[in-house]
Amino acid sequence: MERYGSVLECMDGRSQRKVADYLNTVFGVRNLDTITTAGAIRHLAEDTDQTQTLLANLAISVDKHGSHQIAVVAHHDCAGNPVPDNTQKTQVSRAMARIREVHPNAEVIGLWLDANLIVERIAR
């Protein structure tokens, strides 16, 4: 069985290739289940109408594809979550904590893409 990783990120296409390339290397996986919606990180950090849908899609990735490596991603200039960069970075940390509660055996990392689409890993 091929190994899978999961990524929850914004629908913004500017960042998706960069994130996929980064995670294929860092996670050492060939396949990524990419779960997207506009401003995804906000929906994971806070309770919104989309939170449960995102978590249900992640559960499919974990339960059916055996993904045990999960990334949550935010990016500069997000139209779906138009808040300052530092606020988004805080949301990434909250989202990571939420996912760790639901999937305690998973490796969960947070990523930030700056204005130049450079990928930065966010600690805890």
Brief rundown of the structure:
By secondary structure, the chain is α/β, with parallel strands linked by helices. Helices cover 44% and strands 24% of the residues.
Q: Which properties best describe this structure?
A:
alpha/beta, 124 residues, five-stranded mixed sheet, 4 helices, 5 strands
Question: What does this molecule look like?
Answer:
- This protein has 124 residues and is α/β, with parallel strands linked by helices.
- The protein is built from four helices and five strands; from the N terminus they run βαβααβαββ.
- It has a five-stranded mixed beta sheet with strand order 2-1-3-4-5.
- Strand 3 (69-75), helix 4 and strand 4 form a beta-alpha-beta unit.
- 35% of the residues are buried.
**Which bin fits the share of residues in helices?**
40-55%
Task: Give me the strand/helix succession.
Answer: EHEHHEHEE
Specify the structural class: alpha/beta
Query: Could you give the order of strands across the largest sheet?
Result: 2-1-3-4-5
Radius of gyration: 13 Å
N/C terminus separation: 30 Å
Q: In what range is the share of β-strand residues? A: 15-25%
Main beta sheet strand tally, sense and closure: 5 strands, mixed
List low-pLDDT spans: none
Q: Tell me the number of strands.
A: 5
Number of helices: 4
Mean pLDDT: 95
Shape, please? globular
